[in-house]
Design a protein that fits this description.
Shape: globular
Order of helices and strands: HEEEHEHEHEHHHEHEH
Distance between the termini: 39 Å
CATH topology of the largest domain: Rossmann fold
Strand order of the largest sheet: 1-2-4-3-5-6-7-8
CATH class of the largest domain: Alpha Beta
Helix content: 40-55%
CATH architecture of the largest domain: 3-Layer(aba) Sandwich
Radius of gyration: 18 Å
Number of domains: 2
Structural class: alpha/beta
Largest sheet: 8 strands, mixed
Number of strands: 8
CATH superfamily of the largest domain: Alpha/Beta hydrolase fold, catalytic domain
Strand content: 15-25%
Length: 289
């Protein structure tokens, strides 16, 4: 299978941005490479070594430290284990594996086994949330509790709306490198509140990476019959990909032990909403982990 990167120069550009983002987080991270059945996985670790483990799975078509920045208030209380998703921008194996069946669940299981963790809490936004739902389907007993932020895998995206408001501007941006096109994409994803650093990184990803468009499969109610872990769904009312009302309605129908919260935000939360989300997450973890 071919690399997700369009060129070696493009890959180097993305990894430079990755390192700059890690530096901006201002935390002491250790790094490890873990061998899994799907290839080598790069992992960022931080937080107290004797803290309860908390896996954070990155969103799709972004970089791991960008996702980590959303949940940095949790670093001092939990042992954070944050792998670069295989087949997504970062230092892990850069060829994709299917998100539709059990492959990514098996990948997470390999990581749990490597760290000798029988059960962990999980956080995953967007594509990362879809991975957690695959784990809940195939190996539910490894999840102590989970927080899914605007997750894939619950409702289908509106193909027409996404094509018109998201994919067409990306094509324009790739052809022209127009700052206005990139700004339009960022505004659509975040309701006009995306940080400048995040906008610049996603612009480079759009330029240099073959984007992942195959989302984790939609989860059926029957698939989650054995999944009883407490689950928190955080949704954005104005999310272009997974609108909050539809997402919450579906989650309540198929996830047995679920709590839902909706915010006035897009797929990328505003900084004010992130503060609210982190307070909700802290309370949820204190009650359920």
């Amino acid at each position: 299978m071919s690399s997700i990167y369009r060129s070696e120069e493009g890959k180097s550009c993305i990894l430079e941005e990755y390192e700059a983002y890690v530096d901006q987080l201002g935390e002491e991270f250790t790094r490890e490479y873990v061998e899994t059945r799907f290839g080598q996985t790069h992992v960022l670790l931080t937080g107290p070594k004797d803290g309860k483990p908390l896996f954070i799975l990155q969103g799709g078509n972004c970089v791991n430290p960008m996702t980590l920045s959303w949940f940095s208030s949790l670093f001092k209380d939990y042992r954070i284990i944050a792998p670069d998703t295989i087949g997504h921008p970062g230092y892990s194996e850069d060829t994709r594996i299917s998100a539709r069946f059990d492959s990514l669940a098996m990948w997470v299981t390999d990581l749990l086994d490597h760290y000798e963790i029988e059960q962990s809490a999980f956080i995953g936004p967007s594509f990362g949330g879809g991975i957690i739902l695959r784990l809940a389907t195939y190996i539910p007993d490894r999840i102590a509790c989970s927080i899914l932020v605007a997750p894939a895998g619950l409702i289908a995206r509106s193909k027409m709306k996404v094509a018109q408001d998201f994919m067409l501007p990306i094509v324009t941006y790739r052809m022209t490198s127009s700052p206005n096109s990139l700004q339009k994409i960022a505004d659509t994803m975040s309701c006009n509140c995306m940080k400048e650093v995040d906008k610049n990184i996603i612009g480079k990803i759009f330029k240099h990476v073959s984007l992942e468009q195959d989302m984790p499969k939609l989860t059926d109610r029957e698939e989650l019959l054995n999944y009883t872990a407490p689950t928190l769904i955080l949704a954005g009312e104005k999310d272009i990909f997974f609108p909050g009302d539809k997402l919450i309605e579906r989650a309540r129908k198929i996830i047995p032990n679920v709590r839902t919260v909706k915010y006035d935000t897009g797929h990328y939360p505003s900084q004010d909403v992130l503060v609210q989300m982190n307070e909700e997450i802290k309370q949820f973890l204190q009650e359920n982990y």
